[in-house]
Amino acid sequence: MFDTSGAFKKQFTRVEGGYLVYPSRKIGGKLISDEEYDHLIKGWERAAGRTGRWKAIGIIIAVIALWTLLSDLVSVPEWGESLLVAAIVLGVCAWFLWASTTPRRLVSDRPAITPPRGAAEARRDARAALNWPFVVFALILSGAIFFGSVTANDRSPGAWAWLIGSGVMSGLYVWIAIKKLTDRMR
Asked: What are the distances in angstroms from CA 1 to CA 14, 50, 94, 134, 150?
């Protein structure tokens, strides 16, 4: 359902002599060789492919198990669990961010061989990296959370945060779905 490898591969354009990668919207395409491309894909698979996801899940389970054992042995403050959750989320985000920016770091000192893409083309390519099952899943999940937040009687700051956050995500994915549909019609 979530094809992380397919999304990662969509940032590369096959050209004569290798692949073009656009590090950002304002920088032109930079050439990488076939060997570098294969190395990048293998690195992405290790970090975010099936193996990488299972490795991340295993590390998270080990950290939670260690935390459970430690908290049984020593007195841990109430805010400790919140700190643990925040640390796990930040760690996972850093793991995937580092893996996703590898192509950018690889070509940082290389000259651009093509002009930058237009803003509309760059946005279209970014939307194309999100497959339909992911967009539908995110829309349904954020919509369900938003509906649940709207109908709940709780109006604490946390409930408001869920309401606003899920509403923004729902709106964002509705917009992405509409734009993906209009991209198809072109």
From this structure: 25, 12, 23, 7, 29
Which of 138, 182, 144 lies closest to 1, judged by CA?
A: 138
> In terms of C-beta density within 10 A (0-12 exposed, 13-18 middle, 19 or more buried), how is residue 115 classed?
exposed
- What are the CA-CA distances from residue 143 to residues 133, 138, 160, 161 (Å)? 15, 8, 15, 15
* pLDDT one-digit tens code per residue, 139-183: 999 999 999 999 988 888 988 999 999 999 999 999 999 999 998
| DSSP structural state of residue 21 | E
pLDDT at 1: 55
pLDDT, average across residues 38-57: 88
18-21 β-sheet, strand order: 12-15, 18-21, 30-32
Q: What is the pTM of this model?
A: 0.71
Tokens standing for residue 51:
């193996």
> To the nearest whole number, what is the mean pLDDT of the chain?
89
Output the six-digit token pair for 43. Answer: 């690195």
DSSP one-letter code for 156: S
